[in-house]
Amino acid sequence: MRKLSFIIACVFLSLSIKAQDKQEVILTGEYRFDELYNNAKLPWFQSNFIQYNYNPQIVQQLHKYSDTEIRFVVFGGTWCEDTQNLIPRFYKVVTDAGFQEQNYSLYLLNRQKKSPGGQEEGLNILKVPTIIVYRNGQEIGRIIEVVTRNIEADLLDIIEMR
Question: What is the pTM of this model?
């Protein structure tokens, strides 16, 4: 019985140490690509950016819209697994498609979906990530939390359908 108690105590101690090693990082406010890519506290960003293999034909089609009035406003949470997967992929697609940094903004929210500057106010941000696509200042579509096919196909569908 002592052995079993000792083993159980060791398992709980091990799990506790692992939980401490994987501390949650919550950033809020507006961030640029390089601030996330080079942030040692967010290893998932660089890793998911590098590892994503997009459809090059679709990204090439997106490229023809990179000089237009298309703009993306993105809301996410560093605490959110969907954000951790989708936002690095979004950045890889839009940068490789030729969109300039002035064509997209990223606002990181806390768990209550709030940012210090209140950029989410009036935009009905209920889930993260939310990617809002604008043309000439008018919203033409959104990707909310998950994609239907993949990020590049969903962005192209939004842009070409409006």
Answer: 0.85
